[in-house]
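Please decode residue identities from the backbone states below.
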């Protein structure tokens, strides 16, 4: 048995690497994965220099230490410090929509938000918000969006007269078209 192990030390290193890799699946800490990488490099050294166990151990330890120092912090940062995943109705908080049906403090209004129709009520509980007004979702109360206006009603913006050049004076008459 010892003769076979001495001649096939690379296989022992592969078994160690596989065991560490499987154990990593239980911990998800990336530490055992870095040690498995060290065992894999030791397996490679063992295939090239089968009689030098000390070299296999040194190369495996150096590789594992380098992976722990350089690669693991990057992986941990990437995996654990990503953006927060918002689920349920929380994903609409802070988004803007358009009032479809007038919103009263009593309720009964609705908004179009991301192509969906939501029931809505005003944030300040005394305002009435006209259709066409852009609103921001401040919170969700059950299935009702609590909203606050962030702009003038769209129909007012589209139909508003052009501002006069000289406020307080009569507009200048235009010349009749010449034929």
């Amino acid at each position: 048995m010892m003769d076979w192990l001495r001649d096939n030390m690379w296989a022992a290193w592969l078994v160690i690497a596989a065991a560490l890799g499987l154990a990593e699946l239980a911990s998800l800490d990336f530490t055992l994965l870095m040690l498995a990488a060290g065992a894999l490099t030791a397996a490679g050294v063992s295939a090239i220099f089968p009689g030098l166990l000390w070299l296999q151990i040194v190369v495996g330890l150096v590789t594992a230490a380098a992976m722990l120092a350089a690669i693991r912090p990057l992986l941990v940062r990437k995996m654990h410090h990503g953006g927060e995943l918002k689920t349920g109705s929380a994903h609409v908080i802070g988004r803007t929509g358009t009032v479809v049906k007038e919103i009263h403090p009593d309720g009964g209004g609705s908004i179009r938000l991301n192509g969906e129709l939501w029931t809505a009520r005003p944030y300040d509980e005394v305002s009435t918000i006209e259709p066409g007004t852009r609103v921001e979702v401040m919170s969700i109360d059950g299935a009702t969006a609590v909203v606050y206006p962030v702009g003038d009603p769209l129909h007012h913006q589209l139909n508003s007269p052009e501002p006069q050049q000289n406020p307080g004076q009569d507009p200048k008459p235009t010349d009749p078209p010449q034929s």
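Observation: Strands lie at 96-101, 109-113, 116-122, 133-141, 144-153.
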